[in-house]
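Following up on my earlier thread - several people asked me to post the actual chain instead of describing it. Fair enough. Here it is, all 228 residues.
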Amino acid sequence: MDGVLKHVGIIVDGNGRWAKSQGKSRSEGHLAGSNNLEKLIIHISNTDLKYLSLYVFSNENFKRDIKEVSYLMNLFVKMFKHVSKKYKDYNIKIIFSGRRDKLPINVLKEMDKLTRETKDNTGLVVNFCLNYSSHLEIIDAIKKIQKDNLKIEELNEDIMNKYLYQDLPPIDLLIRTSGEQRLSNFMLWQLYYAELFFTKTYFPDFTEKEYDSIIEDFYKRNRRFGGV
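Reply from S.P.:
Thanks for posting it. Predicted structure:
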């Protein structure tokens, strides 16, 4: 590990509270968040960052009201269809982390299509964490290791990484919007030495300027990786 920023994680949070503060419906909040996320991804693709992981829907989010979940699933379909050409134009590669069960067929179809269409792109890698749980990711990795009959004494961090949903470098910086200060079961394995930044800004109001300011703050921090 070094002090160079390679991988940023963002917990996309606050769409519903933003909507309430604006006198709007939660659906309008999710739509505003989706539109803002599209702009933010394009902005970040024009920087030197290599990997961006986005927590957009947790496994636990399926416990929400069924109408809200249904709206979100349809919103994912519309978003993935809408951004396909744009992501190709900006050389963005899309991957997904999370379990596929519970996700509707039309969502899976657009996920797979977007993955195929951007697989050869060499720019920013965007990892959408959808129906994601870090605990389940680790459990699923252990199950795959057992299925492959890997000897336990052979297991190390590099091998473990390859059995996770995606083989990605550790997260250097985690940003969470909306004022909440918790990890919410997000990429716990990959966050082991991440710098944390919590902003009170609801995600629909989270601008490219604020993102850039947080990046500047990151480079001012002294990352010691266990040193004193």
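Residues 66-89 form the longest helix (24 residues). That should answer part of your original question.
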